[in-house]
Design brief:
Elements: H1 16-25, H2 31-35, E1 41-44, E2 60-73, E3 80-88, E4 91-98, E5 112-117, E6 119-122, E7 125-129, E8 132-135, E9 149-152, H3 161-175, H4 185-191, H5 196-204, H6 209-240, H7 250-259, H8 266-280, E10 286-291, H9 297-310, E11 314-319, H10 322-342, H11 348-351, E12 360-363, H12 369-381, E13 386-390, H13 392-395, E14 403-408, H14 416-424, E15 430-435, H15 441-447, E16 452-456, E17 467-472, H16 476-488, E18 492-496, H17 511-522, E19 528-531, H18 537-548, E20 554-557, E21 570-576, H19 583-590, E22 601-606, H20 611-622, H21 626-637, H22 639-643, H23 662-678, H24 688-697, H25 701-707
Helix pairs in contact: 5-6, 6-23, 6-24, 7-9, 7-10, 8-9, 20-21
This protein binds adenosine-5'-diphosphate and magnesium ion.
């Protein structure tokens, strides 16, 4: 029976229902899936060596003559052992296989055989145990397993590499002539990409390294190309939509900036210009603002909110934690207050504004019912201009009177689908997403290809680099003495622990235990505070406030401190068991210090017990630039882990690697942009295959295309 692409793998010779089921678990259901299930790696078995030059324990390929074929039963193991002797001009070794009696008829004395395996010493003689093999001059014109570059697949139990290779080969032979090209000819021509049939042949069974790379490039390009399409289309469609063209009151913004205790950095100013330009245009803004920890993103967002308010629109300012919401609320309220005070003489208020003052509100889950109701009413009535809260803000059915701008702060895990949710909330509001996990350029294109991107690439003047040092856990007295000296000088310290409760098994320093040790022994003469995620929200806020007010010298904390906290007088951070934290997480935490005029210090107490942990600590001590750190982190962890959740275009990529193939990704994006510019609905005949591929990879996208 002739199989088609859609045929179940079960009908392929050598597979059957049971094997089909285990393949299904790997996502291989159809004949076509076999074609596009790529090798995990390759082994170069093309180089033949002589028997004399074999090295014990080193995999190698030999070609030799069979000089004996025999069998025996293992004395201790009872295994059925097949043993052949092989020789070439330089020497003689044995090869053995266990419990595969049917192999006996395969080998004949006098024939030549190719073996690939690891020679070992067994009772004073050299033998290869269970090598891969092929009769050298057998009928088969091409060997799949030895004497060549051999593909290694991730195969399920019950299917050997050898069997699987045979299946792939058979499918290739039968199906490649039926393949249709997805990439249009002119793109392939411009980008010098080989055709699909050749690429598939060479990705599975490359003749040499060169043809493997050619195939890898072509297939990666196609994957990038398809993945970029939804992103580009989303962006194009967005630009066609009608959003809000804010009428920004420049005087108000000027007055606000004048009233700030600092001057905006050049970078902040540039980014603000980009944002204001977006906001004043009718198409909805969706801009990603990247900036390292402490680069001053909050104030930029505040100005954007002010711009919206000056045009009569409300802003929803979303942050990941309630502590942070409270902090932003206080800070922005103060900034708006000073500005309000100074701006009394400024004419814009009289003429342009519909009311006297910009109102700011805070909505958290710890609000009492009555307060909550009041806030909700003020939002609905339009009294509140800027509403700060956690992400629940947007989901909890909060009714805005005239929502115009959504700010998402500290959000490095904000996927495409969540973004789509946001704009449903109101009629195409402008969206500003801010992240302090600077994503290397290599990745932002895959991850945020539908957004416009702004970057703050400098820190405010006068920021000092945080001095970072790693110490052995054994040297903690030294670290504690240093903390004490800083507190004597009037500063405050954070001490971070990886776990809340004591866990004797892991012997981790726990926040609670450490708090006890500090407050009763080590720092008993100082004021020590404790904060962790299990404390009730009001309790957390109280502790933070005390620390902020300087009523507490040392704050023992869990990673709850990770995001956003801004307390300039805190100049020391001691991180216990720093090896337990991820690199980006460490960087976020370090960003809590070095925010004021004083020199700041980050001390790590570590016990790095894995290679990765060592690499992390080393990179963390060496670099202070968030972009550099993010890049190192990506290298150590890989993108899937780095972003934690499934992100379109990252973990789903089968062969392409945006980190390693950035230029290819760029070309693919350029080509896709050009093509979609000419045919945004993919309606022309030559693009039909692209559309098919697109819907196959992104079934949910079909609706989007239909709606238009
Ligand atoms: P992040 O980008 O990490 O969110 P923040 O917005 O919290 O950083 O800003 C960090 C600190 O720097 C805040 O105390 C903020 O008031 C201050 N800041 C912001 N911009 C400037 C500037 N241009 N000059 C001096 N300080 C600034
Ligand atoms: Mg921030």
């Amino acid at each position: 029976m002739a199989l088609s692409f859609d045929s179940s793998v079960q009908y392929i010779k050598g597979i059957g229902p049971r094997r089909a089921e285990s393949l299904g678990r790997l996502g291989i259901a159809t004949v076509e899936d076999i074609l596009f299930y790529f090798p995990r790696r390759y082994e170069d078995r093309s180089r033949l060596v002589s028997i004399a030059s074999l090295e014990l324990g080193q995999q190698a390929t030999i070609e030799a003559e069979i000089v004996s074929v025999g069998g025996r039963r293992g004395m201790r193991t009872g295994l059925d052992i097949l043993e052949i002797g092989v020789a070439d001009d330089t020497g003689r070794i044995f090869a053995v296989w266990f419990n595969q009696p049917y192999l006996r008829h395969y080998f004949k004395v006098g024939e030549r055989v190719i073996l690939f395996g690891k020679p070992g010493l067994y009772r004073d003689r050299i033998q290869m145990a269970s090598p891969e093999f092929e009769i050298a001059d057998s009928e088969a014109s091409e060997s799949l397993d030895v004497g060549r570059i051999v593909p290694i697949y991730s195969v399920p139990q019950g299917i050997s590499q050898k069997v699987y290779r045979k299946i792939v080969r058979a499918v290739l032979d039968e199906q490649t002539s039926k393949l249709t090209e997805v990439l249009p000819f002119d793109i392939r021509n411009r980008q010098k990409l080989s055709n699909i049939a050749k690429s598939l042949l060479n990705i599975h069974f490359p003749k040499d390294e060169e043809s493997r790379i050619e195939a890898y490039t072509r297939l990666s390009f196609e994957e990038f190309f398809i993945y970029q399409i939804p992103l580009i289309l989303r962006k194009l469609r967005r630009k066609e939509k009608k959003g809000i063209a804010f009428k920004i009151d420049e005087n108000a913004i000027h007055a606000f900036c004048q009233a700030l205790p600092f001057e905006l950095t050049f970078s902040q100013k540039c980014v603000l210009e980009e944002i204001k330009k977006d906001m004043s245009r009718p198409e909805p803004m969706q801009r990603l603002l990247q900036g390292d920890v402490g680069s001053g993103k909050t104030v930029v967002a505040t100005v954007a909110a002010l711009a919206a308010a000056s045009s009569g629109y409300q802003t929803a300012f979303m942050v990941p934690t309630e502590i942070l919401a409270g902090q932003h609320y206080e800070k922005i309220k103060n900034q708006l207050a000073t500005f309000g005070h100074k701006s009394q003489v400024i004419p814009w208020r009289a003429q342009a504004s519909r009311k006297k003052k910009i109102e700011i509100g805070l909505l958290t889950s710890s609000l009492k019912d009555k307060e909550r109701e009041k806030v909700l009413k003020e939002i609905k009535g339009g009294k509140i201009d800027i509403l700060i809260g956690t992400h629940a803000l947007i989901q909890e059915g909060v009714d805005f009177r005239k929502l115009g701008l959504i700010v998402v702060d500290e959000q490095h895990k904000f996927g495409v689908s969540q973004r789509a949710l946001l704009s449903k909330k109101s009629l195409n509001p402008d969206i500003l997403i801010m992240t302090a996990t600077p994503i290397p350029r290599t990745l932002s294109m895959t991850l945020y290809g539908d957004l416009d991107v702004s970057v703050i690439n400098e820190l405010p003047k006068g920021r000092k680099k945080v001095e970072t040092k790693a110490l052995d856990l054994g040297n903690k007295d030294e670290a504690y003495a240093f903390v004490r000296s800083q507190i004597k000088a009037g500063r405050q310290a954070f001490v971070i622990c990886p776990l809340i409760e004591e866990n004797p098994k892991l012997e981790l320093a726990s926040a609670k235990a450490l708090f006890k040790e500090f407050s009763q022994k080590v720092f008993k003469d100082l004021k020590v505070g404790l904060i962790h995620g299990r404390l009730k929200k009001p309790e957390q806020e109280k502790v933070m406030q005390e620390f902020r007010d300087g009523k507490c010298d040392i704050l023992v904390a869990t990673t709850i401190l990770e995001v956003g906290i801004d307390i300039p007088n805190a100049t020391v951070m001691l991180i216990e068991h720093a090896e337990r934290f991820g690199l980006s997480q460490l960087h976020q935490m370090r960003g809590r210090i070095g925010r004021g005029e004083h020199e700041s210090f980050c001390l790590l107490l570590t016990e790095p017990n894995t290679e990765d942990a060592q690499a992390r600590i080393k990179a963390f001590v060496a670099y202070s630039d968030g972009f550099k750190i993010a890049e190192e982190d990506l290298k150590i962890r890989g993108p899937g882990e780095f972003f934690g959740e499934r992100q379109s275009g990252l973990t789903e990529l089968k062969i392409a690697d945006p980190l390693k193939q950035f230029h290819l990704l760029k070309s693919a994006r350029e080509e896709a942009t050009k093509l979609l510019g000419a045919d945004p609905k993919l309606a022309s005949r030559p693009n039909a295959e692209i559309k098919k591929q697109l819907y196959k990879r992104f079934p949910e996208f079909e609706k989007f295309m239909m709606v238009g």
